[in-house]
Amino acid sequence: MEKTDYKSFTMQWHITHRCNLRCSHCYQDDYSSFESRERLEAILGQYCELLEHYDCRGQLNITGGEPLTHPDLYWLLKSARERGIRTGVLTNGTLLGTREAKRLKACGVGYVQISLDGCKKSHDKIRGEGSFEQALDGIRALKAQGIFTSVSFTAQRHNLHELKRLARLCSDLGADKLWFDRVIIPAAEDSDKLTLSAGEYKKLCNTAARLNRKRLVFCGRALQFLPCEKKVIYRCAAGDNLLVVLADGNVLPCRRLPLVLGNVSDSTLLSLHRDSPIMKELRGTGIPDGCKGCKHAENCRGGAKCLTYAKTGRYDLTDPDCPVANQR
Is the pTM of this model over 0.85? Predict the structure, then answer.
């Protein structure tokens, strides 16, 4: 057992890359990888070994692709619960009905996150015709079972101005939480210019701060705390108490930081987390020079490494969208 300051350790697990949608900003280019029950059991065992080694609680967030396309989803959720691991499911919501919501509740799922990328026209343009109403039906099914329901909004240039309307909609639906983040696309691949500019993100955060005061939007991601009265200062967990496992077995420090540490077929999760040169370098990344002198530097530590990497090719620099750094 190794002593750390980890109280919990989160694993985001993409149990399948199969998906019923083809979203325009999706990080995937493979929709075939799929974990068998035997492989799921082996990886879950590796995760339990990691938790035991660090003597901390587990938070397992199961996603895809679309996790509800996997026939062993409910078996996996029950297996994790039996091991004392808290679970969440991240889904597009289109396959969620009363039957699925009841099964998720029976598995002891702590929360379900559904993605809404704006209101009907924008969401359907990004995720496919009819997907908006299907996702709303999914939210209603979850709330009918008393499941904590979180809505995720990925802000890009085309839906940037819809946060306020979406916040009102989520409130009317009874969603427990609405949070948002920036789309992350490497600069060389962003041919449609979906990535927000620093000015656009600042404006979005200011809008969110006003909605936050009405308890309509949660501002807990990178830099969002700056205009908020009640500050939840985000610190990037890449390199620390977070790992991502893809359906082909590859392991990443964060889903939006595309640096492969290795594969669970060749190494254990514990060894990849503890010994990977990439993880060691991430853990050793200090406060960026561009943040020196900022009163939030010790807590914020540079903002989002994934966004910085996408825009600059490095993760040890100050988040390019930081309004404080950009004023200096």
Answer: yes
